[in-house]
Amino acid sequence: MEFIGIVLLGIASGWVINYLADTLPLKRRLSGPICLNCHEALAWQEYFLMRACPHCEAKRSLRTWIVLCLTPVVALFLYLFPPARLGFWIGFGLIIYFAIIAVIDIEYRAILLIINILGGIIGLLIGLKIRSVTDTLLGGVAGFVIMLGLYYFGILFNRLIGRIRKIEVEEVALGLGDVYLMGGLGLMLGWPEVVGGMLIAILLGGIVSGLIILVSWLVRRYRPMQAIPYAPFLIIAAIIMIYIPKQ
User: How does DSSP assign 46-98, residue by residue?
Assistant: First the structure.
């Protein structure tokens, strides 16, 4: 019976992730569900029964189904193998928060301010739970400052490339949302683990970027200076640092 309850919790969490990822980027607040295709309001019954939009007949996105399928699996895995430093409930709640950030950043290339504010609070509480006040605050400051430096470096790099190629480069690899996100993650990771987390994120970002460039070149759709969402790499790095037991 416990396993059934955990699976149902995972499914319910999937609904929450999908709902927030559908509404927050467009409404910037909690509201009734809307169609992502035509942006018309949907009845709650239509939304939760996964029916096509009555206005434009658009079906639910593939992401909706992926999230609903993955969250029960993740919930069950964390229940069987809870993170040592967080336990199941905090660990799974943090995964829900991470998933909301990742989905929104992938689909909209944005990390909302309200989510980063919440992340700062969560990061501080988790940091204080597993380490000292000093290490927690140092981690937050280090994560914010280092990422801010990378943000401005990206702007200067784009300007330099634009002058060399005599083109205007609008996309940047990092946004201020990533900077604030890393500040919250830095509070979770603390000092000096925040450094390891950032190195993992940079490595993952470089590998994935290289693969995207290779595939784009092979299919002849390569676009120079194409930026990709960076929050998922920061989140994966944080999960590795927080959830995997240290020897």
Answer: HHHTTPPPTTT-PPPPHHHHHHHHHHHHHHHHHHHS--TTTHHHHHHHHHHHH
- DSSP lists the bridge partners of residue 41 as 34
Let me know: does 128 contact 136? Beta carbons within 8 Å: yes
Q: Measured between alpha carbons, how far is 221 from 192 in angstroms, rounded to an integer?
A: 40
DSSP state of 32: S
Range in 93-97, 194-198, 213-217 with the lowest mean pLDDT: 213-217
N-term to C-term CA, the chain = 34
Query: Can you tell me whether residue 111 is helix, strand or coil?
Result: coil
Residue pair 19/41 in contact by the 8 Å Cβ criterion: no
User: For 60-65, which contacts have Cβ atoms below 8 Å and span 24 or more sequence positions?
Assistant: 61/36, 63/18, 63/21, 63/103, 63/107, 64/18
Q: What are 61-94's pLDDT values in tens digits?
A: 889 999 999 999 999 999 999 888 888 999 999 9
Give the domain ranges of the chain.
Answer: 1-81, 111-247
- Is residue 188 a contact partner of residue 126, using CB atoms and an 8 Å limit? yes
Q: How far is CA 87 from each of CA 21, 84, 94, rounded to the nearest angstrom?
A: 26, 6, 11
**H helices of the chain, where?**
2-27, 44-48, 62-80, 87-108, 113-130, 133-165, 176-189, 193-218, 231-243
Distance CA 33, CA 40 (A): 9
Structure tokens at 14: 């999937």
